[in-house]
Amino acid sequence: MSALIVTGLICGLIFLAALKRPQWGVLAIAALVPFHGLLIIAPVALSLWKEAAVLAVAVAALLASRARDRATVAPWLAPAAVLVLFGVISTVWVLRTNAGFPIKIAFFYLLVAVIVYYHPFTRRDKDHLVTILLTTGTLSALFGLAQQVLGGERLVEMGYDWNESLRTTGPLLRSFGTFNQPFPFGLYLMLVLVVVGTVALSQPGRLRSRIFWLLSPVLVAAMLSSVVRAAFVGLIVAVFVVGVIIHRRLLIYAGILLAAVVVAIPFAVAVDQRGVLAALFSSSSLEDRGGHWAATLPRMLVRPLGDGLGTTGSAAEKVLEAFYPRTGLYQPDNQYLKVGLELGVLGLALYAVTIGMAIVVLRRVIRVVRDPLEQGVAAGVLAATAAACVAAAFSTYLEIFPMDFFFWFLLAVAASLPREEARAVGGWRRERNPERRARQERREALGEVRRGRTYVPMIRP
Questions:
Q1: Which helix (H) or strand (E) is 444 found in, with range?
Q2: C-alpha distances in angstroms, 280 versus 15, 51, 300, 307, 438?
Q3: SS3 for 431?
Q4: 3-state SS, residue 332
């Protein structure tokens, strides 16, 4: 009963904040979701508080007034809507009345992007979000490193379970921080390092940027302790993307660091008596996944419409075990294979078009915006999206909470711009001269353009 009261209190406060400004409600959820895993040892609220909070913000967004000075450039929401419709039809056709959970798992947090589309983030909102990411990432990282000191037995006494939250790789206990498993912990720290680090590079003289560089070794060490190799690879990809698109010197620093690591590896292996490095960078799990990927891929190719949403992955684990216990479950460990198996080649194409359009929009945003913070956020989100696309090749990325929340949320936030810049970015079709169009819009804002001359309308008393 107390958990229900706390859940209602949280959602009520978020709803009141969102009535004033829906952006505040979304920021509040973003600040809380990294600590959702603590409900395992302190069940003070219901597990569904996060879905209830998002719905509360959505209702408040319908009632709140909309600002007219900014816009969110998100043409990718159109193919995403088609993908949602296709997915809903497929899962209802296959699972009938049990279709609700797969739909929630696959598409629910797209609602956050829709909220941001109608209520774009301001520069100050983005600034608050970066601070939230740094703060929550640091707190979770510190708890993750503390788990290495506490050890498995002490964590069991606290209420965590083996093979659920507690997992090992060789001699290593895999940290999971304030999350329920190592996977979201490692991927979230990757996201924090990429987004906040890119903003810090764009604002080098700011106090928050200096604090980030001081804390970055803690964040990296905690990410390594999770032993989530998809996060390791994603971070490397993100650094390369940021270096190519906005900070070229980063490539030099990354190259020097990589060379130092390569030189140090033989010495580290020689003194590593416990086999920590071998466990940390073992490729055995990738080899196992490669085997079942090769065996399953032909099934995707011969079924163009797929088996139906919710027939693989965690959604199938929840639904099929409850209602069809004799049905075999398959965990693809690959987001693209999962989409292909469930929705076929058509669904995979819609998914690729959605992500591709979002990446193109972010690239245009980086070229158009001039504010260092907004440009840094856009570049960081683009790099984080590229990292997520790589990590999705080794995990069902959009089934891992809260990575699904932040994936759609950040794509919309980064594309929230002043209207003039939003017009310069444009939609899916590229304008031949966006700068000229922006100047034209400014002229039209001052008066009416007729026959090549500008007439400012007279204001009568």
A1: helix 434-446
A2: 43, 35, 32, 36, 51
A3: coil
A4: coil
Cβ 118 vs Cβ 59: under 8 Å: no
| Element of type H or E holding 235 | helix 229-245
**What confidence tens digit (pLDDT) does each residue in 14-55 have?**
999 999 999 999 999 999 999 999 999 999 999 999 999 999
DSSP, residue by residue, 184-217: HHHHHHHHHHHHHHHHHHHSTTSHHHHHHHHHHH
User: Residue 350 to residues 63, 152, 346, 356: CA-CA distances in angstroms?
Assistant: 32, 43, 6, 10
**CA-CA-CA-CA torsion for 345, 347, 352, 354, nearest 10 degrees?**
160
Q: Please answer whether residues 422 and 73 qualify as being in contact, where contact means their C-beta atoms are separated by less than 8 angstroms.
A: yes
C-beta pairs of 201-204 under 8 Å, 24+ apart in sequence = 201/242, 201/246, 201/247, 201/250, 201/376, 202/246, 202/247, 202/372, 202/373, 202/375, 202/376, 202/379, 203/372, 203/373, 203/376
- How many angstroms separate the first and last alpha carbons of the chain? 63
According to DSSP, residue 166 is labeled B
Alpha helices in 67-176, H assignment, sequence order: 77-95, 100-107, 110-118, 123-158
Is the Cβ–Cβ distance between 26 and 58 less than 8 Å? no
Sign of the dihedral defined by the CA atoms of residues 209, 212, 213, 214, in that order = positive
pTM: 0.87
Contact by Cβ (8 Å): 337, 293: yes
Q: Would you list the domain boundaries of the chain?
A: 1-65, 69-435
Nearest to 174, CA basis, from 230, 221, 224: 224
What are the pLDDT digits (tens) for 282-304? 655 655 666 667 777 777 777 77
Q: Judge contact between 386 and 422, C-beta under 8 A.
A: no
The rounded distance, in Å, linking the Cα atoms of 434 and 367 is 11
User: SS3 for 109?
Assistant: coil
Phi, psi at 394, each rounded to 5°: -120, 5
Q: How far apart are CA 221 and CA 361, in angstroms?
A: 33
Specify whether the CB–CB gap between 307 and 94 falls below 8 A.
yes
* Tokens 């009261």, residue located: 5
State how far the Cα of 129 lies from the Cα of 416, in Å rounded to an integer: 13
Tell me 418's DSSP state: E
Neighbour tally for 71: CB within 10 Å: 20
